Every structure is written in structure tokens, then in C-alpha cells.
Amino acid sequence: MGVGVLVTTRPSSAQWVYRNLSQPQGMMHHMVLRSAGGDTAALRKARGAFFTPAPVARYVTEWAVRSTTERILEPSCGEASFLLAAVDRLTELRGTADDGQPAALDGIEMHDASARAARTLLRQAGVAAKVTVGDFFCVEPTASYDVVIGNPPYIRYQDFAGLARARSREAALRAGVGLTNLASSWAAFAVHSALFLRPGGRMGLVLPAELLSVNYAAEVRRFLLQSFAHVDLVLFTERVFPDAQEDVLLLLADGYGQGPTDHASIYQARNAAELATIAAGRTWTPPSPGDKWTPSLLSADALDAYTNLLSGGGFTVLETWGDTTLGMVTGNNKYFALSPARVADLGLESTDILRLSPPGSRHLRGLAFGTAALNELGRNGSATWLFRPAGEPSPAGWAYIAAGEAAGVNTAYKCRVRKPWWRVPPLAPADLLLTYMNANADTPRLSTNAARAAHLNSVHGVYLAPKVRKLGKALLPLASLTSMTLVGAETVGRAYGGGMLKIEPREADRLPVPSEAVVQAASERLTNMRPKVAGLLRSGKLIEASKIVDDVLLVGELGMSRPDVRVLRDAHAELTARRVARGRRGTD
Ligand SMILES: C[S@@+](CC[C@H](N)C(=O)[O-])C[C@H]1O[C@@H](n2cnc3c(N)ncnc32)[C@H](O)[C@@H]1O
Where in the numbering of this chain does the Type II methyltransferase M.Eco57I C-terminal domain appear (predicted)? Predict the structure, then answer.
């Protein structure tokens, strides 16, 4: 999807729609002509054609264009929102003196009618601009512009396929940026746009806020910090384009070819109207350049508390405790995961089955998952056994295999590709289990796998390093309940349909958790409070449990002030509420 629209109510019958893009005092007004004929909403969506509201184009352009002689490019210019803003900006810079045209005012647009409309509008604004029709990815970068400004198309990978995607990936590769097939079109656009800049040039783009978070954009984040001397981001707390699906941010990158920088400066505005009065920025230095930039969504105080804890040694990332890996993939959970009653009915032997943490993760919301809990689930009909003969199946095992073949289970993709089809690839029981999908206000939970159960891919297994295994099994699930880890989960994980928070193993590696030394030092107090925390979790009181762990670890052990802890707690509440609210709107 592209960003929101300047003209949302184009009458489809009208050939042209006139809009008055009013400017704040002191700036000029002009009438803008927008084409509507021959185009449809579906066609516009397919090429990511959503036009930028004037205040946004104006803000970016005023930042980027600094002299009357600059060479300016708007790639994917649509109907030239940015070039028109540049005309105003240049007039303003020129004052009353007439030093003629800028060195270049160029646009590229693949949609012929939009390009024609852009030319008309620019001509009406009294400038000789060059708008070329073509695929931006086929244009050889010239490294000659002072300024590249615009709003690239945001076409999701599902709709961005074939030659178009291949060309975009090739273009990004020219800048040394490898993009996967999951990348939306904007990622390659941003990279390719930079290649049009001369050394020292500036790039101002409207991009989806997912630049901060999605894994496929890691290479883009790295590229930006690597290539530019300054990277500024303007984030919006409200939706700028209410009619569009996408949250956006402004990327203002200065000093092309004069990087690297290790940080981005973050500015926050409520909405487009408030851009003019934007507050002072703050700095976010990601631990490594490709890391997610989502912590920049935190308030200035929360970001300080978060970065201080991470850099102070009291907190580390989960990866330093152990490896997080995907659970077993059976190919057909209904067939392979069995309740005790079903195992008894089938007459399976103990050599045919393995103890299993049943599919789903609702039972993993406490500190530990032990045999008593597993047996209780089994008695209630949950699938606490996995059909997985280690050696020769029993006669009942063979009968069940034959039944599976009769039902076609052996033809399911994952079964078909392994030999024999009924032997699910084994995984050692994990030390800890980490929930993968977390509904609404919940957070990814760690629990000790005291039952030593096998687990499926609805949860991840954490295999602790030998040196910290004993301590981690005893106390890491409890110690990972601080507000710091809760905030961390919102920033390393990602919002999923319906407002769920999903965490992949690679993301879990980056989850902030207390360091071994801190957990060791507080082990007695943590052990003593365990029954109380377990009780709170049993009654669904995650935040209350988190508060008392905060008291012991953040305040008691790490000497953090209570107001600072409060800032983190509020930040968690805010990020969670934001995720859940977006999920409700069904837009993430
Ligand atoms: C989000 S709109 C932005 C238009 C304009 N820059 C603005 O901000 O109002 C994206 C534009 O990119 C154009 N486009 C999509 N893919 C393109 C490509 N590969 N090369 C050139 N233009 C493209 C679409 O036709 C559409 O006009």
C-alpha cells in the first residue's frame, strides 16, 4: 500500500479536479490540477500511487532544497507533489531577485497519464521541468543531484513480483544492498534514489514506518547509516494519512557519501500540521546498524532508561544466555499430537511416543511447565503425546502408520519430504520454552521446561549455554519479567494481525534480559519471591508480577530510581496499547 492521499474524493466522472493547496502565511498559493480520467483505485494501488499531502511535501522540500541552483530529482513523481513544493521553495529562496531556473528540476514516473499531469502542473507553475516516463529502476544512476525528494511506491512483496521485483533487487545490489523477496518496493527505491546523489547530497523521503522494524529492511538501515553523515527521522504519533493503511515517517538523510554515522536523530510530531513546530530531537544509536530502530518510538526519557540499562552491563540480550530455535514441524499436528485417551485407544507403547508440550502456548503463561501441569492438561484431553517411534514401531504403532497412509497423511508436504514420513525430526527437550504468538496485552513468555517435554513450532525452545544452564532454568523466566524486557519485546518483536505480538527466534536473540551476574547476585531474593510471582501469573496479573520483579532487579539490584522504572512501565503500556489499537483497526 502507498501512503495517504491528497485527493481522496476525486469524482470519477470529472476529467480534472482542482485543489487549492493553501500555504501558511508568507508563502504563495497556487492552483493544482490533478488528473482523474482513465485511472482506477485498483490501478493506482497496483503501482503504489498515493499522493503526498502538501504540508508533508513542503516540509521535506524546505529541509532538502537550500539554494536556487540545486539539481533536484523526484523519482516516482506521480503528479509532482515534491517538484511543485520545490518550485515554491525556490521562489522563496530567490526572494525578489530573479536568478533564473535551478540547474535541474527532474521527475521520473512510469504512469504516462500522471507524468503528463505533472508536466502540465509544472508548466502552469511557470517552470521548465523535465518529467520522464519510465521505470525508475531502469534509469542508470547519475550521482549528479544535490537533492532527491519524494514518496516511493509501497507495493507489498505479494504484489511486487516478476520483472519489476527482479529489477529493483538488481538496482539495490548495485549499492551493495541485498534484499530478499519479502521486501516491499520502497526498500529498493530508497537505496536506488541515493545513488542519484552527488557526494554531500540530501535525500528526503516519505517512507513506511516499518523501515524501523521489519527484518527485510535491516540492509536498508545499515546502508543509510553507512552512506550518510546525518540520518534524521521524523515520526508521527497520529496517523498522518487517515485514509491510508500505512504508518509513515520522514527520512531526512544528509551528506551522501560522507558517512558512516552510528546514530539517527529522532524527531516527533503529532501530525502533518504540527511539522512546523517540531520539538528538539534525540539520538538513537542502534547496537549494530542493521538492528531494528523501533526503540526510537519510545519517549526521550524511556529511550534514555532503555539505552542506559542495555549499555550499563546489567542487561544483556537473550542470545548470551543460549540459543533460541524453532520447534518441531510435524506436517500434521492432528495426526501426530495425541491425547492420553487417544494413545490408550490406539494401544500405542511408550516407545512409540514422546512427552509433548501440546500445540498452542496458553499453558505456558507461568514460570515453569512441569509434569503435574502436563498430566493435568492430558487428563483434560490436550495432546500431551507426540507419535514419534524412535526405533521399530510397536504393532499398534504400525497400525497407526497404516491408518495415516490410508488417510493420506503421508502426502502432506512436510511428511512427503522425509523418510520415513512418520518420523518427525527430533529435537532435544529445550531448557526453556518461549511463546511465539502473544495476544493483546500479553508478552512473549519464558517458562522452564521442567517436564522435559518436546515442543512444536507454536513455541520456541531456548537451549541455555552449559555455564548458565542451572541458573537460567531456575530463575531466567522470573528475571525476564521486568519492564525492561517487556519494553524490549515490543521493540524486537513485531505486531501481527489482530494486535498479536510475534517473536521469531532471531528477534528473541535480541531480547533484553538481565545479565547472568545480576540474576546471580539477586538469586536469593528472586527465589524467595517466586511463589508470589507464580501466584500472580496464575491469576493473569502480568503487570503486577512485573512490578515486584522490577523492585528486586531494577531498583534493588541495579539502583534504578523509581521514577525511571515508572517511565519504562509507562512506555510498555503505551507500546502495547498502540499495537493492540492498530490490531483492532486491522491494519498491521
Ligand atoms: C506513492 S506515489 C507518490 C507520488 C508522488 N511522489 C507524491 O508524493 O505525491 C508513487 C508513484 O510511483 C509511481 N511508480 C511506481 N513504480 C514506479 C517505478 N518503478 N518507476 C517509476 N515510477 C513508479 C506510481 O505510478 C506513483 O505515481
Answer: 291-554
